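Input record, target 12 of the design panel.
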């Protein structure tokens, strides 16, 4: 995914273009969640962006979208 690679490159211009790329999917909150939530909790039950083994792609997509949005909201509190 292009946006994912841009988030990890040094420089604010790369992060800016990664965020712009995510606006096409109305998923800009993942910019913050990916760097400050997902990387700390990757592959744990607390990470909404890591799919459990044998999970259905459709149910996981909804769970992930809701979970990452709530995670970012809770980070801001």
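The sequence produced for target 12 reads:
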């Amino acid at each position: 995914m292009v946006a994912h690679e841009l988030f990890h490159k040094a420089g604010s211009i790369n992060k800016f273009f990664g965020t712009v790329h995510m606006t096409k999917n109305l998923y800009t909150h993942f910019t913050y969640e990916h760097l400050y939530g997902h990387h700390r909790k990757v592959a744990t039950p607390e990470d909404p962006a890591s799919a459990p083994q044998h999970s259905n792609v459709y149910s996981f997509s909804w769970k992930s979208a809701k979970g990452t949005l709530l995670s970012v909201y809770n980070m801001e509190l």
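Residues 21 and 63 are 22 Å apart (CA to CA).
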